Structure formats: structure tokens, C-alpha cells
Amino acid sequence: MHKILLLVAITLLSGCTAYQRDSNRLATALNTQSPEIVLAQLQDSEPQARDNAQFHLNRGFLEFLSGDFDSAITTLSLAKKEMSVLEATSISENVGAGTLSETLRSYSGYPTDRVMVHNILALSYLFKNNIEGARVEILQADIAMKKLAEKNALNGQLASAHLIAGIVYELLNEQSNALISYRFTLNIIKQRDMPIPLGLKKALLRMSFKLGAEQQFVDYQRRFPDLPKPSQKTENQVFVLYFDGVVSHKVEKTVVLPSRNFAPLIRISMPGYPLAKQNVRPLSKQQISTEMVENIEVLVREDLARETPSILLLTTTRALAKYELVRRVNEKDNLAGLLLNLVTVATESADLRSWNMLPGNIQFGYLGTTENEIQIDGLNDRPKKIDILDGSQNMILINSLSDHIFHYQQL
Amino acid sequence: MKIQTNLWFALAVTFMMTGCSTSVERIDAQEQIDLSGAWNDTDSQLVAREMIDDSLSRPWIVRFVSETGKDPVVIIGSVKNLSHEHINTNTFVANMERDLINSGQVQFVASAVARQEIRAERGDQGVNATADTRNAARQEYGADFMMQGQINTIIDIEGKTQVRYYQVNLELISIKDNRKVWVGEKRIKKLVRNSQLRQ
After folding, report:
1. d(Cα A301, Cα B77) in Å, to the nearest integer?
2. pTM, full prediction
């Protein structure tokens, strides 16, 4: 009976780590292969039920990058629901995580995932010409951020979510809401000590001017003295978001304490991130230049750092429990003890799951123009022309992983 | 040995608790069931019925009938979803249409989308149907009033508990002169407590 359970445990956990490795391999492949190809490979994989949320987040994002907005909405809505259900604590999963491995817990999403899913859904609805649906998602993102907010911390607070909210409100001509959202964006960017993107400065000036919020307008004019007063003329508005690169995925950091005098081996595995990549590539030398508004590389590291103390505590407790179990079996039967020790070592693996196909960073740019065409140099610098109607408001999404340029336009 | 036994027990419990099965049960469509606390069919039916009852009990309808000698003709316009949820306003509009028509106090005309389809059919009849079965163009009923509205929400959250406040506003506008002849409001407040534990 014990042998069968051991086999089941090893098989179960080896399947788990195999899927994690596969998922990380596919995330890396995004740098060289199109989202459509990676999506096809991801769909062939068979995740365990406890990995469903991670699987659906990645799949939904790839469907989004492929321009299949209907599928992206279906899949990401499913992931959103799964993460919501998994917010509650599971006793059986905690028992599994405490006795065997951290990976026996269901993936319930990090704070960044819980907000980013609304960002991608809002954009999916928008590019599907359903701005009401986008509005619902930005409201849900706001609730998610309020739930995650901690005192004096930026836990789950995404500047990009407030920025997208500001743009959607501006498209809906809800000027007051737009100004408030742009202000929230500014607050987070300042707290993160990031440079304020020019597009955001223009948005704050534009909305406070349009709204007649004189005091605020004067204040922003004083803070951004290089910028001209917003134009009274009817200009075509072009908002540009740029998804740059792929976020890093977690790696396992393992320590094995060697055996002496037949004492059991102890293996401790912790998840970690490689050193932060700093290769931010803004869109420049184009009609529209972009600047970073969200560094997802930083956010995912913060998410993990916040969980590290509890992971370390559980990992150490589990290692001691396994050690004690093996030692006791060892006292009675050396061979059984050795076999059990191998199993306890083999089943000790770090939880490497994350939404590992997110962009590395999100950039933003804004253009007010009277021209009816803008040119964007996409992947491999192949230029694409986008038609802009007179008096229109436009939202454009470019990404560094494919040639797709998504365009929403309204008059 | 005790620790070892506990480990096997914990393992067995873990695997047992991860299993589950699907069951389906037919229930009455009128039965009130709240699963997530989100806007559902019960809310849609309840709000539609109460709003229509309210609108039909107000003086505008008597005044219109006495002035024109005919029942008012109503069309339902857009009901904007400004809430935090993806609410299918079509079902809400359908509920209102049903309650309005069944009241027998107003005439009802098809929506702009439906009218296009009907006009296309009428056009087709003009070419293909026999003269005695053909329906002529330019015989449509023009609406006297349009009903428009919006659904708003306010959500307050503390930990696993949230208060969801829905406010549905509808108004009936005279198409002739843009007068608002009736304004209705219905509020629903829900207290939702999410479980701290799951299977």
C-alpha cells in the first residue's frame, strides 16, 4: 500500500514539474516564435486541475496577442473565475503542501495576475468594439486593486490598470473619471520612482483643462512647464500601448544537505527569479514614441518576495518533518529508510508557476494630430500604415512579439 | 511510526478530497437562487416587473389616453450597463417588453434592429408575394414614447464580505417633444459573504 502511494506521489509530482518546465519553455519560445505557434503548442499540453488558472491565463493572453478576442475573453474570464474561487483556503491542499510539496496547491494567481487579467480583458473588449465591456473590466480592476491594497504598500496596485481606465473613460467622454484615473496612475508612478511618461503628463493637462478644474490645471502646468496648453482645435487622438518582451519566469534554487553516517538527505528548494532584466526597448524614432508605465519584471519579483517568508517557513517545516520520518524508518530498516529518503528528496520541488507569458513591461504614448495616417514600425521594422479618421479617437496596441497591431477607432 | 501513519493518512485525504463529480437538477425558472451574489435572472425579472408596474400606475398613461383617445405606443431603447458586472441587458429589456405587452395598457413596437429585418421581409414580399397576401410599406406604427435607462452599481468590500448595491434607473421620454413623462428607480442591496475555506 505504501509503495503504491509513493509511486502515485512521485508520478503526480513529476507530472507537475514536467508541466512547469514545459510552460517555462514555451514562455521562452515566445521570444523567437509567434504567439500563434506557441498557443498551438500550449493547447497540446495537459495541465493538472490545480494548474488550470495558470494555463488559462497564458492561453487567454496568447489568444489576445493572436487577435482572437472572443476566445481571449472566454478563456481569461474562466481564469478570473478560477482565481476568485481559489482565494479561499483549501485544507486538503494545505495538507498536501505541508507534507509533500508546495506544487500540490492550486495556482490561485499573484496580485499582479489578479489585476492584469482585467487589463487584458478590458483591451480584448475594446478591440472587439465593445467599450461597455471594457468599462466593466476596468471597474472590476479597481475593485481588485482595492481588495489587494495594503497600508503604505503597492501590493497589486498597477499604474497600467489606472491608465487603461483613464483612456476608456476618456473614450466614453467621462472626463471626471478619466482625470481621477490618470491621477491614480501618476501617484503609483511617483511612488515607484519612475519617470512620468510624456503621454501621462499630456493626459493630466488635457483632462484638467477640459473639465475646467482650474486649480489642478494650473498645478500641472507648473509641474510640467515644457508642455504647451492643450489645443482648442479638434485633433485626432491616438493612444498607444506597447507590450515589450516577455516577463522572466521563476527558477528553482535548491540546497541539498549531504548525508553523513546514514543520516537522511535533506533537500530544500525555493522559487526565485533571475536578476532583473533591464532591456526596456521603447518605441522611438517613430511618429509616436512610448515610455514605460509598468515594469512587470519588478512587479512579479515583489509578488514573490512578499510570499517568500511563508514559503520558506513551510519548506523548512516540511523538510524537518520528512527528515524525522526518514530517520524513524531508517532506525527499523535501512533499505526502507533509504528508499523513503529518495522519495522525500525527489518530491521536494519549488513551485515555479506564474503567469509567465506576460509582457516584460508596458509602455504608453499619446499623439494629438490632424493627419489621417500614422506609420508604425512593427516587428522587424516593417512599417504599417494606420488610417485615422477626422475627429476620431484611437487606441492602438503594438507588441514586440508579433506583427499584429490592434486598432480601436471611434468618432 | 505515528508520524509515518499521519503522513499516509494526510496523503489519502488529499487525494480523496481532490475528486468531485458533476450533478444536474432541473429547477423551476422562477425559483430564487443566489450563487455568487452577482446580478442574476431573479434580479432582472424582479426589477423589470416592479418598474413596469410602477410606470403603468402613474398619471402619464391616463393623461395620454384622454388627450389622444388611443393607447400609447412604446418602444424600448437602450439600457446602458454602467455596473461592475457583465450584465446581459437584452434579457432585462426582454423582461420589460413582456411585462409591458402583457399589461394590455400600451401598444408596443419592435426595436430598431428588429424593424430593419421586418422591412427587408416586407420589401421581399413586395417583389415575391401575391397581391392579396402582400403587406404594404408605410403602414408602420410610430412610437409615442421611448423607454431608456441604465444600471449602476456601488461595491463596498472588507475582507471576504462585500455589499453590492445596484441601482436601475429608467425613464420614459415623449418622442414628440422630449418630455420625460415618467422616471423610475429600483434599488437592490446584497450582502455577500465569501467562504474562507474551500474543498
Report:
1. 49
2. 0.85
